[in-house]
Amino acid sequence: MDRGGEVTVGSWQPHAVQVVSSTWARDSHDLFDFEAHHLHTKTFSVLSSMVCVRNGTDVQMMREHTSMPVGSEPLLRLVQKDGYFWVDKVSPSSSSKKLWLVVRDSPPGGHNLAEGDVMKLGRFKFKVRQFGVHPGSQPELRLDDSGAVCCPEGKGHDDLSQTLCRICLLEGSTEEDPLITPCQCKGSIEFVHLGCLRHWIRGRLNLAENAGGGGPGIGSYFYRPLACELCKAFYPTYVSSSTSRSPLVEVPQTTPPFIVLENLVRDSQQHATRGLHVISLGEKVLKLGRGHESDVRIADVSISRCHAMIRFQRGHFVLEDNDSKFGTLVAMKKPRLLEPGKTVSIQMGRTVICLQVQPDHGFVGSPPLLSLPSSSHNERALRLALLTRGSTQRADVDPHNASTPPTPVGPAQTWAEGAVHQQTEAVSGENVEQPDPLD
Ligand SMILES: [Zn+2]
Ligand SMILES: [Zn+2]
């Protein structure tokens, strides 16, 4: 581990992190109202590893490994390691609160999406399934990663010469129009012609009409899996023949660049359908929102008329929030390094926390070289490196105050109503509580 040789740890003073928490007074579907006038806002200046907790609408910074007040909920960890600050969820377990990056506060120009990202608009989630950039690439229409393939029966076409298709009631199977068994039905309704099934699906999905108009580019459509009306089994995504594999549903050719977004639908959301939005972008912009002009339209009160946009720019798919009421978020997948001068905003339920490393005030030295794995492939190693085992190994808050007892640290100044953020001092161990003006 290279710790930057000539820099002695004693001369290096870590920067402080300014933490501004804003909590919406209402507790509704884990939403935060970015247009709300009454927010509970607090500003902290943090010099060492801390855990941020919320109790009702009150947010506090606590030292790690101290017991939390009853009824409080941990939100995030701020980890100071070798002079750098990282932000992460409180524990690696899935029960730990999810951290969501607030896109409207990301650097100008928007947030560069990656395949596998989960975005959240209002209370709706989408998974970025696929980017299509290169000529000739086509969407993978798999859901739940099954990508089931239906193969024509092992029997030859001759063996099926007396077998009836359940749709057209005609017998016979050919290479061009084989009899297949696409679902769990058995007996006299087991077999169906591929052509007959496709004809039935065409009538159900109206893909050709969707692809013609409305979409921003050529070959945009919404794909949803269909189930057999009798046995309720989902039809396979693909059908294979002796020579090739093709989608069971006859989808239009999509012109790259395109993006595939999956609706992540919970069973309780009846007004949304599980499926894939395939959208060709080209020079155009993909609009997500409640309005009729949207390419991905979501009819829900938590969605603004024009909520967010995705554009293809210099090889990237860029997500931008359009000042939406309930925000556009991207799930944070791994610990994030706080870079000096750059603000990171993170939402956890009804609280948004803005983090910014403060420029050092007359401190000497520069940070030791970063010795932590920053590769995106090494999330586990990164988490392990950031784990602390008790309070002993930490270089503490302020060397002149080394005797400060390891008690929970209150904010230097607790709250400021609305958008007014009070300037705070770098301080620890003091707790300047003020009464809640809403009481
Ligand atoms: Zn048939
Ligand atoms: Zn069936």
UniProtKB/TrEMBL annotation:
<dbReference type="InterPro" id="IPR000253">
    <property type="entry name" value="FHA_dom"/>
</dbReference>
<dbReference type="InterPro" id="IPR008984">
    <property type="entry name" value="SMAD_FHA_dom_sf"/>
</dbReference>
<feature type="domain" description="RING-CH-type">
    <location>
        <begin position="157"/>
        <end position="238"/>
    </location>
</feature>
<feature type="domain" description="FHA">
    <location>
        <begin position="286"/>
        <end position="335"/>
    </location>
</feature>
<dbReference type="InterPro" id="IPR011016">
    <property type="entry name" value="Znf_RING-CH"/>
</dbReference>
<protein>
    <recommendedName>
        <fullName>RING-CH-type domain-containing protein</fullName>
    </recommendedName>
</protein>
<feature type="region of interest" description="Disordered">
    <location>
        <begin position="390"/>
        <end position="439"/>
    </location>
</feature>
<dbReference type="Pfam" id="PF00498">
    <property type="entry name" value="FHA"/>
</dbReference>
<dbReference type="GO" id="GO:0008270">
    <property type="term" value="F:zinc ion binding"/>
</dbReference>
<dbReference type="InterPro" id="IPR013083">
    <property type="entry name" value="Znf_RING/FYVE/PHD"/>
</dbReference>
<keyword id="KW-0479">Metal-binding</keyword>
<dbReference type="Pfam" id="PF12906">
    <property type="entry name" value="RINGv"/>
</dbReference>
<keyword id="KW-0863">Zinc-finger</keyword>
<keyword id="KW-0862">Zinc</keyword>
